[in-house]
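Attaching the record inline, Q. Sequence:
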Amino acid sequence: MANGTQSIVVACDGSEHSLHAAKMAAELAKATSQPLKLLAVFPGTKLERLIVSGIPQSDIDEEANEYGRKAFDAAKQAVSGIVEPADEVLLKGDPAKEIVEYLDENPGSHMFLGRRGDSMLRSLTLGSVSEKVIRHAHRPVTVVSE
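Structure, as predicted:
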């Protein structure tokens, strides 16, 4: 599968929206016999606040790992009985930017994202992670809304 999908990746943050996306991604992974990977991004805004507060790097790393663990555990529970995730990837930074960079570095990936369904005004003024990823990704992206 040189040019096709080689893995299904779901962005996890522990929200109901991401868990719904995880279930859909797991179903596709099972149907296509592709590995399911879980990806979480420790938000850069939280990272910056911790750095500015003078929190030691080891404590920041511990908090990021805890964030990832919670997101991964929730996603694993959501896909339990469908497929066993093959990998967990924890990144730090702006979620949309990190997801797009991950897709660029992993060309065989098909990304699944949950969509919160914010109002049109809010998404126009703030922009959403899913919208930013769709706008900038050069790989397949599926946005799952309720």
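Residues 99 and 105 are 10 Å apart (CA to CA). The longest helix spans residues 57-79.

More tomorrow.
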